[in-house]
Each structure stands twice: as C-alpha cells, then as structure tokens.
Amino acid sequence: MKVKIRKEQIKDFYDISEVNYKAFLKEFQSNYVSENGMIDCARRLKEFDGDFSLVAEIDGIVVGHILLIPFNITINGKVKKAVSLGPVSVIPKLQGKKIGQALIEKSHQLAKEKGYDLSFLFGHDTYYPRFGYIPHTIGESFALVEVKDNEPTTLKEKLIIEEDIPFIHDLYMKWFENVDLTVLYDPSLMSYVSHSPSVEAFTLLKEGNRIGYVRYKKNEENNPLLCLAKDQESFDEILIYLKDKSKKETIKLPIHHDSLGYQLLSNYQHEYKNSTFSAGMVLNLSNDKCVEDYIENAKSSKKTGLMIYPTSLDIVY
Q1: Could you give the CA distance from residue 33 to residue 30 in angstroms, rounded to a whole number?
Q2: Inter-axis angle of helices 13-28 and 34-42, to 10 degrees?
Q3: Which domains does the chain have, with CATH numbers?
Q4: Tens of pLDDT along 237-265?
C-alpha cells in the first residue's frame, strides 16, 4: 500500500469533507461534523497557508487529511509563529495503518521549514505525545462573576464596521498584553466580526460613544467568548448588559489573572479558575527558549495562558 502525501487542490475539497465526515461520524453521532466547518473557515483566515492542508492518497483516492492553521501568538510578550494542528482524519477502514502518523510528521516538517516556533492542539493525550506534544500546557482561564441587582443598562449594540477596528483592537492588545500565552489577533475587520449564525458580535455604545466589545453564542450571553471594556465604568456597564441579556446573575468571563480585565474584578464577588487540560498540548518546533520556558512553567504550575480563537472559527459552534 503506497501512500502519497501532497498539498490539497480545489478539486479535493469534496473528498476532504467526506473523509472528515467518515472519520468523525462515530464521535459526533450527528450529520454535523464540526471539523468540516473548521476547515472551511480556516481557508478564509488572513493567515491561511494552503501548503498546510495536506491529503493522503492511495491509487488516486483521498483517504486522509490534515490541516495546520497558522496563528501569531504572544508568549511572555514575544511574538511567535504558531500552528494549530487539526483536524487529522483518516477513513475508518485505514485507521491504524500509520497514515495519520505520516500526515503529522510531514506537516511538522513543513512548519519547521517555514520557520514556525510551536504547534498546539487539543487531542488525545495517549496519542500525540509520541510526536513530542506535552500535555497539560494549554487549558482554560475564566472567572465566575456575580452581578447583583442594578438599574437596567442603557448600552446600545452596534454592528461592527471597519471604523470600529482600531478601537476594538487597541482594547484587545491592552486587555491581554501581560498574559503569558495568547492569540495575537490581526487588526482587521474579519478578526472581530463573527461568521456564524449562532454567534453575535457587537461594539457597545454608551450615549453614542464606544465603550467595549462583546462576542457570545446566542442564548449564552452569560458565557461570552470575548468581552472587552475600556475602563472600570465601562466594565461595570457591560456586566449589567450581559446580565440583562441572559437574565442570569452569574457571568462566566474568559479572563486571565495577568490581564487588565482581572484587575477590574476587585469590586465583584467572583470565583477564578485557571487550569490546564491533559488534552491541551504544545510542541516546541524550533527549540525556542521562550516556548520551552512556557511549557516548563505550565507543566509545573498546571496554569495556562488564555487562547481565544478569532471569529473566523466561530462557525464550528
């Protein structure tokens, strides 16, 4: 059985969708396999690199696929080139034949050749460590914030336009500049406007002036995917807004203890949690000391940075 690994072509898009559907059908038990949505969305990313979408072919038939999604991230204030590995898929009847292994090894080789510093993923901790991935190096960081009775908010939602981006992106950079690991968004419109019919994203206005940004899944306004505020007063108003929208007094904020947002929690009763997942893994592709220091600290402390994917991947919800 001779396996050929090559870069995807437009004509492969259907076959790639079918391979992912077959590979993940058992896991999802649904007609909706989010990996296909992720692949389609990734192709629209400004950073997308078609060299990182590879197919495995046997006798001209596509039987496997892998995708690396490029990101710029910051580690302790330094910008690093990263890729997110996945999805990796092989049709069920050929799983266990080392086709996935070949795809992963080839993708790592390409990432190293292109000067990427690290790869990260969420996956099976019994499989990916054989490729050098270190479990418990990525996880979640959030605060459960109690928002008590207050006057209803007067904030107005505004659909995001290009003129809003300098304000929103400046907030994002200030909000997360001291976090040890975070995604560095591109300062462009499509980084902050959601593509998903299940997700809302707004600039928030008070008396006609911008004071913040929110992004949340519909009917889950108390669990925003991203929430940014320009100051304490704005933060207070936005929490009331989220409470009013969700009709729930507990708001789960994606926040990190080294972020600006955490400093604004001092007036609130809250429970903060920061922990790594065994499924959250990082691989140091370039033997970079900054990456290695982060990995060692995450392993020893079981504490993580805060990785919030850009809106381009919202369609997976």
Answers
A1: 7
A2: 140
A3: 4-116 (3.40.630.30), 141-274 (3.40.630.30)
A4: 999 999 999 999 999 999 999 999 999 99
